[in-house]
Amino acid sequence: MRRFRALHNNLRxxxxxxxxxxxxxxxxFANPNKFMRVSGYVLPVTATLACVLFTIGxxxxxxxxxxxxxxxxxxxxxxxHVPAAALSIMVYxxxxxxxxxxxxxxxxxxxxxxxxxxxxxxxxxxLALVTGAIWGYPTWGTWWVWDARLTSELILFFFYIGYMxxxxxxDDQSKAAPAAAIFCLVGSVFAVLxxxxxxLWETLHQPPSLTIGGEENVDDVFHIPLLMMMAAFFxxxxxxxLVRVRTEIRAxxxxxxxxxxxxx
Amino acid sequence: MIPVYEEQYVFAIWACxxxxxxxxxxxLVYSLWRSGVTKRELEALDGARRRAPAxxxx
Lengths: 264, 58
What we know:
Chain A contains seven helices and no strands. Chain A is an all-alpha fold. By secondary structure, chain B is mainly α.
């Protein structure tokens, strides 16, 4: 019995330590003051790196990369289209994780994090749709087809718009947060569909250009500037997202002060 | 120096890069502007709260 209890205690310690560690790290950023302090240091670094990578990536995309063998010069559009499309899905995924944290653990910064990310994600989705249409016309001969990838990306854009509209529809932000979080989680289906539609169905849209650990579809001459632009878009997102979360934290304080003044 | 591309793709390339630059810069400028407005509003409210006379002891 004693041995069983020791084994049970060891097992419990083993399973609880990593979770407690994750939990501790998660809650260390629940303090808005700490978030403001840390983000104040991170923001200039990410913004500078984004500027440098954008400059090099755009220069290489427009000037030094040669015309592609089949698609010609139109292949230069991948350097803005692919990062925008990838980030549109990734930002939605990040919003879903934040929404889960807000719903389950009531993390005080998580709902603001998802709210701050939504307009940036919507901008990336719009860019992916518009640049895709402009690329599609000379490549496919049409601006738009009701293809699985394109349609799921369009629905994802509507989910972004709906999510932002839902936040604005409530006067009481504490009531808007859970409704918006549930709405965001419902839309995750379309983010997953947008990601895997080209693998699940035969579509006009080509398979993914970049895969982690998979077969490479892009030659190195395109691959390296494309990775640079992906990193630039990602760092741009982090920078603008940090600015927006900091704004949301301040806006919440403003609302709290006004509410307290109204009660006095 | 402006690069020279195949004629049928010139519009598509410049339109894509132009629209992307416009949207990203507009989002950045709007976020910074809103951040500035909120920061000033919070500072004004905080300042007014600090200047307000202390409540008499009950």
